[in-house]
Specification:
Distance between the termini: 43 Å
Strand order of the largest sheet: 5-6-4-14-15-16-13-17
CATH topology of the largest domain: FAD/NAD(P)-binding domain
CATH architecture of the largest domain: 3-Layer(bba) Sandwich
CATH superfamily of the largest domain: FAD/NAD(P)-binding domain
Helix content: 25-40%
Shape: globular
CATH class of the largest domain: Alpha Beta
Strand content: 15-25%
Number of helices: 11
Number of strands: 19
Order of helices and strands: EHEEHEHEHEEHEEEEEHEEHHEEHEEEHH
Structural class: alpha/beta
């Protein structure tokens, strides 16, 4: 962009808003990051640290995730201590019926240019000796990484401030301000206004509330997910392991599992931390905005983990918690300009991939604002890509709000 940079207000100081602010401040764009609560205090404080491509559909989604991994890898040295590691990750198979689908999955990903590998039983158990003996194989992705989500948000914000970005935590936004049909800033609940040439709404599950008064509908719906955290003690490997069925749970595909596992969308996620303990997940359910942990879901997560790691029975649980994933019907985020409101841009709906897709989302939004060509086509992420039937169906899910 030639001439003076636009003034930008980013609404939502989770990992997505923080990454956008980081990219813009790096480019010298005047930017203010505003949030109704503490920086990183929403969904980004209730998640694990996945930066994965192994759980993405082949094609555009996989390419999006891989580009984000490469961007983050380049940022990591600049951001400092965010507990960033790149050990790769695995999908463990629950039974012989998953062997051929897993082989097909690997072949599809490799055709898309990603370095996936299928491991037979012997290689699987050499890599993960604590797995149950009947696990017949696994899928491996060497580029997958992990980090501390809150440290990541804090580092992005700190670097942005060093470059002149302003931050306004505990400043609830009442409405998007407009002038002549264009976005003109945001009105805060305290009565003040932050003027801007561009407003970016990166408010996760709360994004629709800010857009609806402008007549803009996006099918972003909260989808609750639980995690279990153990005390320090025995660990069962130093790499992230999920089950192949995680893909079915994530994308709503059919699988044969115990009733509670199916009901709550539970699938094994094992994530060792630098602190010496580990995190277990995960679950997926539509429960409105309720983040109260459900003991039945937590028990289902633990039982599912024991199916893959029988020796895990000797570990002790420290706590369980729940957060809200900003779900969309096609499992892709909404990133782009709002055609009906010039100057208004949306970056939300990342479901459980916000940590992993933050870097690429920041890059894409920065390119759009600076009128530079994004590294990937933007049409699959367009705000207006959903037809009326999809919007109506998402509205039904959204009636579960609490």
């Amino acid at each position: 962009m030639t001439g003076q940079s636009p003034r930008v207000v980013v609404v939502g100081a989770g990992v997505i808003g923080a990454a956008i602010t980081f990219v813009l401040s790096r480019a010298g764009v005047p930017v203010t990051l505003v949030d109704r609560g503490p920086l990183g205090g929403g969904t980004s404080s209730r998640c694990d640290g996945n930066v994965l491509v192994i759980d993405k559909d082949p094609g555009y989604q996989g390419a999006l995730a891989h580009l984000s991994q490469e961007l983050l890898h380049a940022w990591a040295g600049e951001l400092g201590e965010i507990e960033y590691r790149r050990p790769g990750s695995y999908l463990a198979l629950a039974g012989d019926d998953e062997v051929e689908p897993a082989r097909t999955w690997v072949a599809d990903q490799r055709r898309g240019g990603l370095d996936f590998q299928y491991l037979e039983a012997a290689a699987t158990h050499r890599a993960m000796p604590d797995l149950a003996a009947d696990v017949p194989g696994s899928v491996y992705s060497p580029t997958d990484s992990t980090l501390n989500p809150l440290a990541y948000v804090a580092a992005l914000v700190a670097k942005s401030r060093q470059r002149g970005a302003a931050t306004r935590p505990h400043s609830p936004v009442a409405a998007i301000a407009t002038s002549g049909g264009r976005a003109a800033g945001v009105q805060l609940e305290d009565g003040s206004t932050l003027a801007a040439d561009v407003v970016v709404v990166a408010a996760g599950v709360w994004t629709p509330d800010l857009l609806e008064p402008l007549g803009v509908t996006v099918p972003i719906v909260p989808r609750r997910g639980h995690l279990v955290v153990t005390t320090k003690g025995p660990r069962f490997g130093d790499v992230k392991v999920m089950e192949f069925g995680y893909l079915m749970a994530k994308f709503g595909r059919e699988r044969t599992v115990p009733a509670d596992v199916d009901r709550y969308g539970v699938a094994l996620v094992y994530e060792p931390t630098r602190a010496g303990n580990f995190i277990l997940g995960s679950s997926r359910e539509f429960a409105g905005f309720d983040t109260t942990p459900n003991p039945d879901v937590l028990r289902a997560i633990v039982r599912r983990a024991l199916r893959f790691y029988p020796a895990m029975a000797e570990a002790s649980v420290l706590r369980g918690f729940a957060g809200l994933r900003p779900w969309t019907p096609d499992h892709l985020p909404v990133v782009g300009w709002v055609p009906a409101v010039p100057g208004l841009l949306v970056a939300a709906g990342h479901e459980g991939d916000g940590i992993g897709l933050a870097a690429v989302t920041g890059q894409l939004v920065g390119d759009l604002i600076r009128q530079e060509r994004p590294p990937l086509p933007m049409e699959p992420l367009a705000v207006d890509r959903f037809g009326p039937d999809v919007l109506q169906e998402a509205g039904v899910w959204d009636k579960t709000r609490i």
